[in-house]
Structures are given as C-alpha cells and as structure tokens.
Amino acid sequence: MLLGAAATPAGAAAAVPVSAPAPAAVTVNYAGTVALDDCSGSVVRMPNSQPTDPALVLTNGHCLETGMPDAGQVIVNQSSNRSFTLLNASGRGVATLRASKVVYATMTNTDVTLYQLTTTYASIQQRYGISPLTISADHPTAGAAIKVVSGYWKRTYSCSIDGFVYQLKEGDWTWSDSVRYTSSCDTIGGTSGSPVIDTSTGLLVAVNNTGNEDGESCTVDNPCEVDQNGNVTVHEGTNYAEETYLLTACFDPGNTLDLTAAGCTLPRP
C-alpha cells in the first residue's frame, strides 16, 4: 500500500485535500514473550513501572504451578521459584528467568497469574536487549486488530476483537467482560497465557485463556456465553481472552500490588 498522497499533475489548479493515512500497524514479534512448561506468557510492565522495578510475568490463573485456583479463590504473594524461557524477537530462547513469588492469581472474574521475577526490567534489557510489553490502562476496542503471541508454540495468531462477553462460564468458573476473537485466532492448548497485542498501539490488552472445543455448554474446555438477561449461547470453535486493563489500577509505584487502591476492582482474598 502506498502511504503517501498521490502526486499532483503538472498544471493542476490546486491540490486536492487528501485524508491522512491510517497509522501503520505496530510490528509484533516474540520479544518479551516467555514459554512456561505448559503455557505461554510474557514479561510485562504497568504504565507506571520503572526500569529498576522487579519485572513481572503475566500468564493465566489456570497455568498456576500449584493447580487451578478454585472459584472464588484469590492467591496473593505466594512463594514461587518457577522458571520461564525468555524469547527474543525471532522466537529463540535467550535466557531462563525465575520467579520469586506469585504476586496475584485468580480464576474469578478473570483468569490471570502475575509472577514477580528475581531480576529487574533494566537487567533484562541490559543483558538480552529485550523490553517488557506494556499493559494498556484502557479497555480494549471492538473491531481492533490483534495478535495472540504464543511463546510455548512460537506461533502468532492474527485476528480482530469480535466483541465482548458479559459472562463467560466454564466448569466452576465465571469470567466477566471477556474478549471474543474473530475466527482466524484458532488458538490451541499451550497458548493459554499468551499476550494479546493491539497492533495499532503495540500495547497488551488481554491474556488468551480458552475456547469452545466440542460445542458443549459451560463445561471444561467448552465455555458458554451468558448475557445480562441470563441467556446462554454456545459458539463451537470460538476462542476468548480476558482483559488486562483492570490490573493497572491495582499496582502502586515499585510494582507493588495494592488491592485497596482507588479504582482497583480485582477480586480480593
């Protein structure tokens, strides 16, 4: 696609106004993604995180190494020494990062685990030339072009946000305001925890978490959609993610979790 305005013919009386071209999509690669032993994830920062802060890794609640949290369970500041393979832009593993603790994990209303690492963003940047992904503080936008980047499979899926689900139910768990993908994001097992990147901004807007595999209703691996009136629908083959902007209101400077902070709506223990 040509991004510049067309040349004006010689002798034309006046240039015709041309609309500004749409901003080019951000290049999305594997830099900053991580591979877990059974899931995907990414090194992430909050909008107010500083280079000297201990780095964070984001994945799903159901990827927690001690087992999936029960419905209603919230885990905070739990010791962990889990390891992660850090990938560079081409998807090559360049380092093993290690957690010091689980900062936050739940499968209630959302499906997230945040680990704190034993190293800082600055150290990762200096040693490996890799920067963290920044979590957007804004709600994602319907129709936005996205990429789901799996460090486990070293595979990227491209699609758009089809819309948002009032409640997504799977087994014992219920998630709120989930992201529904268009069909080309046909994610598979092992992509759980993958960052969902808005390609117009390069910001992380959601974390990939589930899909309806067999057309069953509300069972494990077969989430169902529930609207505000309680109507249940099933979309076999459709995949979903959980929004991440909620996380940004719950961290004070220094990447310190504060579930009592103004605007923080994450479930509490």
The poorly predicted ranges are: 1-22
Summarize model confidence as the mean pLDDT. Answer: 92
How much β-strand is present in the residues?
A: 35-45%
Give the second-level CATH assignment, the architecture of the largest domain. Beta Barrel
> Can you count the helices?
2
Radius of gyration: 20 Å
Which strand order do you get reading across the main beta sheet?
A: 1-2-3-7-6-5
Q: The biggest beta sheet, please?
A: 6 strands, antiparallel, barrel
Under CATH at level 1, the class of the largest domain stands as Mainly Beta
Shape: globular
- Along the chain, the helix and strand elements come as EEEEEEEHEEEEEEEEEHEE
Give the beta-strand count.
18
Ends distance: 51 Å
Which structural class do the helices and strands define?
Answer: mainly beta
CATH topology of the largest domain: Thrombin, subunit H
Helix content: under 10%
Provide the domain count: 2
Descriptors:
40% strand, six-stranded antiparallel β-barrel, Thrombin, subunit H, 2 domains, single chain, mainly beta, 2 helices, 269 residues
Task: Explain what the structure shows.
This protein is mostly beta strands. The protein has two domains: 33-133 and 246-257, Thrombin, subunit H (Beta Barrel), CATH 2.40.10; 145-245, Beta Barrel (Thrombin, subunit H). Helices cover 4% and strands 40% of the residues. It has a six-stranded antiparallel barrel. A six-stranded antiparallel barrel has the order 9-10-11-16-13-12. Residues 1-22 have low confidence and may be disordered.
